[in-house]
């Protein structure tokens, strides 16, 4: 009995938790003073507009959104 191609490389879906942790860590380094919480979606959903200076607000929301997209895209 021969088994060919029994061992397959892991898919990127299996690596998703590692990717999410890595992206979250990178974001934490870029935003050390922010309380990011457990879920990045909450950062955007719970954010109060006008709570930061406008330029910081745009940068913060952009960085969080980019991190979410990287995780979703598997990058």
Question: Would you give an account of this structure?
Answer:
Helix content is 55%, strand content 0%. With 75 residues, it is mostly helical. The longest helix is centred in the C-terminal third of the chain and has 20 residues, at 54-73. The chain is elongated and about 35 Å long.
Topology, pairings included?
Blueprint: H1 16-30, H2 40-45, H3 54-73
Helix pairs in contact: 1-3
Strand content: under 5%
Structural class call reads mainly alpha
The tally of strands reads 0
| Overall average pLDDT | 81
Number of helices: 3
Amount of helix: 40-55%
Radius of gyration, taken over Cα atoms and rounded to an integer in Å: 17 Å
- Major sheet description: none
Q: Could you name the ranges where pLDDT drops below 50 across 5 or more consecutive residues?
A: 3-13
Shape designation:
elongated
H and E order: HHH
Distance between the termini: 39 Å
Descriptors for this entry?
75 residues; mainly alpha; 3 helices
Q: What is the compact description of this entry?
A:
The protein is mainly alpha-helical and 75 residues long.
